[in-house]
Design a protein that fits this description.
The protein contains 17 helices and 5 strands. Helices cover 65% and strands 5% of the residues. Helix 7 packs parallel to helix 17, helix 9 packs antiparallel against helix 16 and helix 14 crosses helix 15. The strands form 2 sheets. Strands 3-4-5 form a 3-stranded antiparallel β-sheet. Strands 1-2 form a two-stranded antiparallel sheet. The chain has 399 residues and is mainly alpha-helical.
């Protein structure tokens, strides 16, 4: 092409292929935390095998179909993966705009449990039975709602540049936001979920940079609240019995202490390398109740041994490590709080679940993240992983 006697040559720049775009410096593929993703996927895969091993012979639960829980667990993982991808696509920052709506929806969900729609499962009145063998536990979604809600409140003025740390009024507003769902869940009562939510709130406050007085005050309030709950008789009898059995394991080994007693026998019999997948005598003999949910770690201990059980703990540790790294590298306080809240959630829930299986923590009906059978838990866990990936992808590549 000639302009005023000069000739210009247009340089041809080929467009990047689809594969090239995927692996470009700023692409989603390059920005994802693959260690975090692989650890979560591997836990899901191990959990699928353990759930199948724990349920394939339990005809009273499977209605004669040995694949009953296996297929549902795989389906739950698939739905959870879709929700996790949705969280990545939407992004934690864009979620700020819908946090009030999600929070209100979570509150309505736990209120529905207290209505005629609610159902009691294994002594806990915290479920909504949908039908066809499916049910929802709305308190699982409250965990995400509290993390996002508190993150929005605590980070608003800091990210805007008005303050370096949340002031006392802001912290009080955030705690009030968390207090409402906790009060409703205590009415069920679902003590396990309240314990997890308490750990989340503590992690969120620590990450927000709030005054240490709030942290120590929260711990002290938790101790006083626990004593009041005990004295006022808010807990159901089966929950009181669980704490009594924890304090004295020999109190009733054939009654309230039966679960933990059998779980310890199963884990101890596994030895170093285990009895082999699908070959655990305790698991096959159906000696441990709720082995596909709360006590799934006992299947790992018996059939995969110390090595297999330690590998599960290692994978959980990888998730916590990557979550902490993502929290430290976040470009804003909002992202830091979201990541730290998720880390506190997974850390406490895993510790409590494995601890109650080993007898070093009271039985509280808390599933092992990504491993235990349960749709609501799997959905919430996958959304949490999606949020972590979103926080990771928002920061510069060099971080």
């Amino acid at each position: 092409m000639s302009i005023s006697g000069y000739t210009t040559i247009r340089r041809y720049t080929p467009e990047k292929s689809t594969l090239g775009k995927l692996f470009a410096r700023d692409s989603i593929v390059r920005r994802m935390d693959w260690l975090l993703l692989f650890a979560a996927l591997l836990l899901c895969a191990i959990g699928t095998l353990l759930v199948y091993s724990a349920t394939r012979n339990r005809t009273s639960l499977t209605h004669g179909d040995q694949y009953y829980f296996l297929l549902r667990h795989v389906m739950n993982a698939g739905i959870g993966a879709a929700l996790g991808i949705g969280a990545v696509v939407i992004g934690h920052r864009r979620m700020r705009d819908v946090v009030p709506f999600y929070y209100a929806l979570a509150i309505l969900g736990i209120l529905a449990v207290l209505s005629p729609l609610g159902s009691t499962v294994n002594g806990a009145h915290s479920w909504i039975v949908i039908g066809g063998g499916f049910s929802l536990q709305p308190s699982e979604f409250v965990k995400v709602a509290i993390i996002l809600g508190m993150a929005v409140v605590l980070s608003a003025r800091v990210d805007a540049g008005d303050r370096e740390h949340p002031d006392h009024r802001t912290v009080l507003q955030a705690l009030g936001l968390a207090a409402l769902p906790i009060a409703i869940i205590m009415m069920m009562p679902d003590l396990g979920s309240v314990m997890v939510l308490g750990a989340i709130i503590l992690g969120v406050l620590l990450a927000s940079g709030a005054s240490n007085r709030w942290v120590f005050g929260l711990i002290a309030s938790g101790i006083v609240g626990a004593l009041l709950v005990w004295q006022l008789g808010i807990l159901d009898k089966y929950q009181i019995d669980r704490f009594a059995a924890f304090a004295n394991p020999a109190l009733d080994p054939s009654g309230v202490g039966y679960n933990t007693s059998q779980a310890r026998i199963a884990i101890g019999s596994g030895g170093l390398l285990g009895k082999g997948l699908f070959h655990g005598s305790q698991t096959t003999g159906q000696f441990v109740p709720e082995q596909q949910t709360d006590f799934v770690f006992s299947v790992a201990g018996e059939e995969l041994g110390f090595v297999g059980a330690a590998f599960i703990i290692l994978l959980i540790g990888v998730i916590l490590w990557r979550g902490c790294a993502i929290a430290r590298g976040a470009t804003d306080l909002y992202g830091t709080i979201v990541a730290a809240g998720i880390v506190a959630w997974f850390a406490f829930q895993a510790f409590e679940n494995i601890g109650m299986t080993l007898g070093i923590m009271p039985v509280a009906g808390i599933p092992l993240p990504f491993v235990s059978y349960g749709g609501s838990s799997m959905f919430a866990n996958c959304v949490a992983i999606g949020l972590l990936q979103s926080v990771k992808m928002q920061r510069p590549m060099s971080a």
